[in-house]
Amino acid sequence: MGIFSRLFNKNNENICKDKTSKYYNYDIETMKYAQYQEKYGELWNLIGEYTQKINTYYSDYINTNSKEAFNNLFVYCNKYFDLIPKFEEARKEDTRINGTIYKNPYYCVAYHKLAMAYEKAECYNSAINVCEEAIDKGYTDGTKGGFEARLNRLKKQSEIK
């Protein structure tokens, strides 16, 4: 049942009857969704914004080798990292309330792009640290070998240099 049909379905016995509640006349499912959006909506918007900025600055850095683009990438990756605990909480809550199923391991754009940017800059130890942290937290970079294969390759490259 869509959100509008839930909002206007007055025959549903699961409607919030508390006239003091801002969810008065909402059915229970819509009320849960509205509460979830109030609690986590801004977080999802920030994750989307930071993901877009990370991808943009990563692309700029790869194409121009600009220190400014690298610095901006670093800043937004760290902002993303700061949101991860709250984001994981939001995902669990979304699964509990809405039954949304998320892929595991979780693809983390910030770890992925930062590791690749460090690799391009030949800062292998930093790239290795990023990969190890991502592995410890159970994230993937979306590739077949994941961060584990990237880590092995980086370790070999760091020995050559």
Textual characterization of the structure:
The model is unreliable at 1-8 (pLDDT under 50). The protein is 71% helix and 2% strand. Helix 2 packs parallel to helix 4 (109-120). With 161 residues, the chain is mainly alpha-helical. It has helices at residues 3-7, 28-64, 67-98, 109-120, 124-137, 146-160; strands at residues 106-107, 139-140. The chain has a two-stranded parallel sheet. The radius of gyration is 21 Å and the shape is elongated. It has a single domain (25-160), classed as Serine Threonine Protein Phosphatase 5, Tetratricopeptide repeat (Alpha Horseshoe), CATH 1.25.40.
Share of helix among residues? over 70%
Distance between the amino and carboxyl termini: 59 Å
**Main sheet?**
2 strands, parallel
* Percent strand: under 5%
Computed Rg: 21 Å
Question: How do the SSEs run, as a string of H and E?
Answer: HHHEHHEH
Strand order, sheet with most strands: 1-2
Descriptors:
Serine Threonine Protein Phosphatase 5, Tetratricopeptide repeat; 161 residues; disordered N terminus; elongated; mainly alpha; two-stranded parallel sheet
